[in-house]
Amino acid sequence: MKRCPQCRRRYSDDSLNFCLDDGSTLFAEPDSDPTLISPTLAAPPARITASPSQSSTSSHRWVLLLVIVLLAVMLGGGAVALLYRINKSDSPNDERTSKTSPATPEIKPSESAPDKWNRPSPTPAPTRAPNLSGEWNMVNTIETTSFPQYANLRLGYHLVISQTGTEFTAEGEKLSENGRPLDESERTPIHVTGSVDQDGATATFVEEGIRRKTSGRFVWTITADGNHLRGTFVSSAAKSSGSSIATREK
Predict the structure, then answer these.
(1) Contact of 214 with 186, CB cutoff 8 Å
(2) Is the pTM of this model over 0.85?
(3) Residue 205: count of CB within 10 angstroms of its CB
(4) What is the extent of the structural domain holding 149?
């Protein structure tokens, strides 16, 4: 038999330790004789115990804390796994890159030396074009033509070239055919306009023939001494073309 020291309620179930009404600790009470009046038992001092509601709240807090810890562990593990997968997926590319492309050594310019890697490449100084101004003797040899009788005909000209910068003009006349001097009535004027590019020159010409005007083009190479022009010509006269050589008069 057990009794509650607060409400004095008796419990026959010896397995109970707390009062079902107020939660006080039960204490054992000896069975009394039915014919005798059981003496009044002094109540033991009250003990402050936690109520069921307080125990339940504390349990809930511990459960909630445990759930939070588990969630934190799961989230941390997931983040670590994700980072591992990302690093693993990137590593083959890095290995292939390291195998296919050799490591380029880092170039660090000296503090005292100029930063030549960041400086723009120097612009080369322009090459001065040769000056063709002066008097020239030119010989054009017809190699191909629509008139067979003109084949291998050598035409001699005298030119006076005036050059400004890289542009030049020339005035002259045809003086000979196959080395034979022409009479003044047979001579035909020629006008030339062209340009010089370092070791070469190109020009167009108009020749005032006895019957009609003809036109054409020169492409020359200038020799190192600047006194000879060697190249080709094309003319509308009998659809002729061939070699062209000019020599500066001294």
Answers:
(1) no
(2) no
(3) 20
(4) 134-248
